[in-house]
Design brief:
This protein is mainly α. Helix content is 54%, strand content 4%. It has a single domain (66-319), classed as Lysozyme, CATH 1.10.530. The protein is globular, with a radius of gyration of 27 Å.
Length: 321
């Protein structure tokens, strides 16, 4: 038995044991290194946390309940006077995720100023919801294209998307550029878009919305591009016109996502998402003070419209497929 404990044999066994431990660790090292790089990319914002946060909120929207009000109580005959009959075939649930039909109006119907305020709101929101969802859906698709470009290291596609949102592609590294683009390439809360459309178009009754399909009062300094307002601080200013109301919604979203005046808006939205919360219209309204000359008064108007009409119920909606 004593022979088993000879120093030479013991040393050989010890070396074999250490080799057996070392070799697997050596082979595993590249995998650990790759995992570290992947985690670093997630930290830098390469993983689409925004989509994850939004989908999670969408899945949890079933706990949201509202009382029946003017939006639910409008009669089909009243709707048919202003919207195609196909709009009456759908019931908009007041509980959980709102299902919206893919029905798209090209212009605001005439005569909304001749109905009750409740009827006007119910009609206007019904025609606006598909337009807002469609424009936001396009943003999500573009964001998916960006993710694919990142995964394939297609820097030219990344730069092309950045240019759409007026981001200087020459003065930053590709990592910084991706971070900047991701802050811009995000949807606009439905409740915020509805509130601003209501304010800027008078719930679809303003001259600009009827004659120029202008739902959001966007200014232009090219006289041929819009309608001249009766009062304006700049004599060259016009309210930009559009070929249809869908174009107006899309331009409004691009404006918020690209103009330097709304940098605070984009930073605030990104802060919510980084903290794992999807922001609604009330969350982002404080950053909308540059949109109108009235500043904070305009912010309060947005908040009041959202609260008084319970527009948050529409923040988590999706198309009926």
């Amino acid at each position: 038995m004593a022979r088993l404990f000879q120093p030479g044999i013991f040393l050989a066994l010890l070396l074999a044991l250490l080799s057996g431990l070392y070799i697997p660790l050596s082979y595993e090292k590249p995998r650990f290194f790759k995992k570290s790089v992947h985690e670093q990319k997630q930290t830098q914002g390469y993983a689409d946390q925004a989509r994850f946060v939004y989908n999670y909120k969408l899945a949890k929207s079933g706990s949201y309940r509202v009382k029946h009000d003017w939006f639910d109580q409008i009669l089909d005959d009243e709707l048919k006077e202003f919207l195609p009959e196909s709009f009456t075939k759908f019931n908009y649930s007041s509980y959980g995720l709102l299902r919206v039909p893919k029905l798209f109006m090209k212009s605001v119907p005439l005569g909304l100023d001749n109905v009750t305020i409740g009827q006007k709101k119910a009609i206007f929101i019904r025609l606006m919801l598909p337009l807002i969802l469609r424009s936001n859906e396009e943003i999500w698709k573009q964001r998916k294209n960006l993710e694919q470009a990142i995964n394939h290291a297609d820097y030219q596609v990344i730069k092309n998307i950045a240019k759409i949102y007026k981001i200087n592609t020459d003065s930053v590294s590709i990592d910084e550029l991706i971070i900047k683009v991701k802050k811009c390439l995000l949807p606009i809360p439905t409740s915020l878009a509805l509130a601003q459309a209501a304010i800027e178009s008078g719930w679809g009754t303003s001259r600009f919305s009827i004659q120029g399909n202008a739902l959001f009062g966007q200014w232009s300094w090219s006289p041929k591009s819009g309608l001249k307002p009766l009062e304006a601080s700049n004599s060259q200013a016009v309210v930009r016109s559009f070929p249809n109301i869908q174009s107006s919604v899309t331009a409004y979203m691009k404006n918020l996502n690209s103009h330097s005046a709304y940098q605070e808006f984009r930073e605030l939205r990104n802060t919510y998402i980084k903290n794992g919360k999807w922001p609604n219209g009330l969350d982002l309204a404080p950053a909308m003070h540059p949109y109108a000359e009235t500043g904070n008064h305009y912010v309060n108007s947005i908040k009041n419209i959202i609260l008084q009409n319970n527009l948050e119920r529409f923040d988590y909606s999706e198309f009926i497929h």
